[in-house]
Amino acid sequence: MSPSAAAAPPAKSYSIASIPADGIGTEVVEAAITVLKTLSETLGTFAIDFTHFDWSSETYKKTGKYIPDGGLDELKKHDAILFGAVGAPDVPDHISLWSLRLAICQTFQQYANVRPTKVFRGTQSPLRNCKAGDLDWVIVRENSEGEYAGQGGRSHRGQPWETATEVAMFTRHGVERIMRFAFETARSRPLKLLTIVTKSNAQRNGMVLWDEVAAEVAKEFPDVTTDKMLVDAMTCRMVLKPESIDTIVATNLQADILSDLAAALAGSIGIAPTSNLDPTRKNPSMFEPIHGSAFDITGKGIANPVATFWTSAEMLAWLGEHDASEKLLDVVERVCEKGIVTADLGGTAKTVDVTNAVCEEIRSLYGESK
Ligand SMILES: NC(=O)c1ccc[n+]([C@@H]2O[C@H](COP(=O)([O-])OP(=O)(O)OC[C@H]3O[C@@H](n4cnc5c(N)ncnc54)[C@H](O)[C@@H]3O)[C@@H](O)[C@H]2O)c1
């Protein structure tokens, strides 16, 4: 048999757990699965299959649990998790968040939360004079401790002297690992610039440890330039000098807030992705849009699926499919450039229109006749 006649090696195959959960989460995850299957079938360079997990507020209301007994062991068998959003009007948010999303992030030690933001070609930032390319950031959020460590409690419930504490927890181990991850991320980007966000003027314990560990880790990365900003001043810089920012590292709460601002400055929360990574790769990582379940638009078919498409591209890159990842993101930008965008970006397209347009663009650019 001549070498050219030899069978092509089998494409790598990935098993993805899908957890659409609530509200528009179900709509955007369905759209992303359609696009990922089209990409896999068209490129032929990787195979992908999805196992659906019906973990949602509906399940909780029926069974009293978001995650059934043994559920996390099942989840762990997959290469990655594609998540929608959790939250329902008739379940308190702290129950839904802690029982599903945080239960996964914390158990699987997904300590690095990565949130890229940019102005897509064909979309508009609300900032005057901010064009595609002027705003291109990666926010690295500490995802395992800090203000969301779950430390604290309530005493004397119902009494006038009722007390509640919410203790932010910073460990040397936790800060060191996220700083190292953030420096590595900054090193991989063109500007090699890391802004360390802090609030050590007012918070004189945890945040001072944060600053000290950042300075120690910086010595291992002489090729990365750093600057330090108080979180309040950072909001002004994001609005006034977006081009001066590249990679940002911040605590769990601070980065949570800054990344919503970042998403709005890039045009809409409907395009912003997030990856919850276990950089040790001992556990599957989880990919999701930043947005929530959006009660106000659920069932209307107008949710922007772009954030979930972008997070799907991030998932492919994490799995090692860099070429497919870059192609998917480029295709999504091409569709935006054609003006096929949902109402949050000023368009009239529905979720299904954007999804179909992305699939058509994939086939037209990479289909067999090409
Ligand atoms: N990761 C998560 O699962 C997550 C994140 C945030 C909020 N939540 C939950 O979601 C519920 C609603 O929260 P919220 O209203 O604060 O935030 P949200 O992100 O759901 O909605 C905020 C606003 O942005 C709009 N929006 C969000 N995503 C959009 C999209 N893809 N396309 C177009 N418009 C979009 C919504 O219509 C709404 O007006 C709550 O229960 C909350 O706890 C979950």
Structure write-up:
- The chain is an alpha/beta fold and 370 residues long.
- It folds into two domains: 12-118 and 272-369, Isopropylmalate Dehydrogenase; 125-150 and 164-266, Isopropylmalate Dehydrogenase, CATH 3.40.718.10.
- Helix content is 40%, strand content 22%.
- The chain has eleven helices and twelve strands.
- The strands form two sheets. It has a ten-stranded mixed beta sheet with strand order 2-1-3-12-11-4-5-10-8-9, with helices on both faces.
- α1 packs across α9 (306-319) and α1 runs parallel beside α11.
- Residues 1-5 have low confidence and may be disordered.
- It binds nicotinamide-adenine-dinucleotide (NAD).
- Residues 24, 85-87, 93, 97, 101, 269-270, 288, 291-297, 303-304, 307, 342, 344 line the site of nicotinamide-adenine-dinucleotide.
- Nicotinamide-adenine-dinucleotide binds at residues 24, 85-87, 93, 97, 101, 269-270, 288, 291-297, 303-304, 307, 342, 344.
- GO terms for molecular function: metal ion binding; NAD binding; oxidoreductase activity, acting on the CH-OH group of donors, NAD or NADP as acceptor.
- Its cofactor is Mn(2+); Mg(2+).
- Residues 15-358 form the Isopropylmalate dehydrogenase-like domain.
